[in-house]
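Sample entry as discussed:
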Amino acid sequence: MATLTTPKIEARSVSKIYVSARTGDKVEALRGVSFSMKPGEFVSIVGPSGCGKSTLLSLIAGFATPSAGEVLFDGKPIDGPDPARGVMFQDYALFPWRTVRGNVEFGPMARGVDKTRRAAIVARNIEMVGLAGFEDRYPHELSGGMRQRCALARLLANEPDMWLMDEPLAAVDLQTRVILQDELLRLWGDAGDPAQRRAVLFVTHGIDEAVYLSDRVIVLGRRPGQVKEIVDIDLPRPRIGARTAPRAAALIDHIWNLIRAEAAQAIVEEP
């Protein structure tokens, strides 16, 4: 049974090898990755392209299983997907045939939530992400930022214990990205009671984004991904105004120097 001292997530010497069904070739994506997350903690994963960031998140989501080691959620081994671990993707993954309301409603409906409570959950979350008035729009009628807000509302409507976010802001323009970063922190409870926050594991290529959002940043080296360093982000919360702080710049520079050479090499080696 989970307690206040039980890690929300614990990865123990996790490795992942993919084997091609066609050729039998093996690709080692992760090797010996270990870390833990506390309840309510916001942790980002950064590293060069192809270092296994998304693979690690998939293992925690339960979409894949480790080749070696284990991943625990609230002290129990992860053996598949679970609504308690909500996932948000870069490409929105919205149902194009469902409206904003229909997309946000899908999770509670699939879980058997009754119609009256479901309507209240949907209305609350659409309001929280700033999409009130757009309930009957379809995804193709929304901007990129609005689609991502819809995806976030859908995640929140399932009331998950943990948010797993795989580059959720990468597909939007820079101005929208900055706005959505602040919105994400607001919804997470950046300025509120830490005890009310959900644990968040956030995959990103943006070091500045990771530093601005996170309590800690896990830095992976190039494939096979291994933990180079786990960096404590000692910026005060709430984070509004921290983007231009000298300490933020120093942390960004430190993380970039950890992966600069490997990031350049990863670009050269991309097929």
Q: What stands out?
A: The helical segments are 53-61, 100-110, 115-128, 144-157, 174-188, 207-213, 246-269. The mean pLDDT is 91. The first strand starts at residue 9 and ends at 19.
